[in-house]
Amino acid sequence: MRVLLVAPPGxxxxxxxxxxxxxxxxxxLSSGELLRQEVKAGTEIGNTAFKYLQRGDLxxxxxxxxMLAERVIRASRDGGYVLDGFPRNLRQAExxxxxxxxxxxxxxxxxxxxxxxxxxLRRRLLTxxxxxxRIDDSEAVVTHRFEVYVVETEPLLAFYxxxxxxxxxxxxxxxxxxxxxxxxxxxxxxxxxxx
Length: 195
Known about the structure:
By secondary structure, the protein is an alpha/beta fold.
């Protein structure tokens, strides 16, 4: 399995990515979680990324590629991956797409798009902020993250639709139903593309 999850902040990408990675026995590569680990460890990548994360802005492409490139290649060789949060903009998607042409067996099989209304997303994020105290979940940062998502990340969907990779999933259902729908859609997609 080589899958990317695309959804606005708070749609449940991380939860579903973990469930899928566990179900298929592949790596869960969350750019956000990996960046938070880099920040906590005080690495060069983490120190540079911190100011972007605080504002809710996207971390520069070169930092993301530096952090993820080897992990994606290694995961592909070990059976696959579930990407969560990368690529996050059209430039990253195009660069990753062209890179996969030179490294066999790492290209995406599908892109899962979780659909959730803005009202539900805001409710989820503000609840998470209270529960987990994440720096990127304050009211002002949440609003900014939605704006960044619309401008930077939504265009990915057209890019991947043109390649026949997007699986549309209702992300407002309960967690288990969302997971079941993803697995069912992915398996149908996988069978259809083998023929």
